[in-house]
Each structure stands twice: as structure tokens, then as C-alpha cells.
Amino acid sequence: MPQPTLHTVSATAEGTELPTGAYHHLLSSGRRQRVIEVLSENDCPLSLTCLTAAVRELETAREESDEQRQVAVTLHHIHLPQMDELGVLEYDYEARRVQSFSFDE
Q1: Domains plus CATH for the chain?
Q2: Considering only CA atoms, which of 48, 1, 9, 47 is closest in space to residue 28?
Q3: Per-residue pLDDT tens for 54-88?
Q4: Which of 21, 28, 32, 85 is a good FRET partner for 55, with 20 to 30 A between their CA atoms?
Q5: Distance between CA atoms of 103 and 105, rounded to whole angstroms?
């Protein structure tokens, strides 16, 4: 889902006019953005427990995605080229393909 913006927040504020600085402050927090995201997907009131669970789910998904990207970057730029150079595996940097060799156990 797209990040909340001044337009989407003002559209959901239903007549409440906030100064631009207040909007920027509101959207400066990722957690507040996720609250807006969750509430925009629900037509009925949510308990704090439900809201907390939904926000945490979004945060966990994003953290896992960021963590996965970070792992991919370090593998691609550091670890796999080093292992390829040592002859432990074959890594095609351009194609981003790894081929393992048989390991003696």
C-alpha cells in the first residue's frame, strides 16, 4: 500500500483543516503513517488491541523485507564474490546466480 501523503491524509480528515506543518509532523513518523494506513483500510472503529496488532504486522513485514534486502546486498557484493574467488562456489555476478560445488562431509 502507498505511504500516506498530505493529499490522502487531508482527504480522510473530513473537514479538519491542519496547517501544513502539522501534516508534515503527522507524517514524519513511520508508526503514525502505519496507523493512517490501517485506519484507511477499515470502515469501523478498531480496538487498541486490533490496531496494535495490525500496525505491528505491517512493521514486521517491512522489517523482514528490509532485512532480506540487506542480506541480499551483502551476499551479492561481499560474501559470494569472496567465496567464488576462493573456489568454494561459482557466482555469476551479472546474472546473480550461485552454483554450489559438492562438499566433502
Answers
A1: 30-100 (1.10.10.10)
A2: 9
A3: 999 999 988 888 888 898 999 999 999 998 888 87
A4: 21
A5: 6
Left, alpha or beta for 47 (phi > 0: left; psi -120 to 50: alpha)?
beta
Count Cβ neighbours within 10 Å for each residue of 23-35 and write b for 16 or more, e otherwise. Answer: beebbeeeeebbb
The grid coordinates of residue 16 equal: 479538519
Q: How many helices (H) and strands (E) does the chain have?
A: 5, 2
Residues 9 and 26: beta-carbon distance below 8 Å: yes
Cβ pair 6, 27 in contact under 8 A: yes
Q: Supply the pTM of this predicted model.
A: 0.56
**DSSP state string for 36-87:** HHHHHT-SS---HHHHHHHHHHHHHHHHHHHHHHHHHHHIIIIIHHHHHHTT
Q: List Cβ neighbours of 26 (8 Å cut-off, separation of 6 or more).
A: 9, 18, 32
CA atoms of 12 and 39, how far apart (whole Å): 10
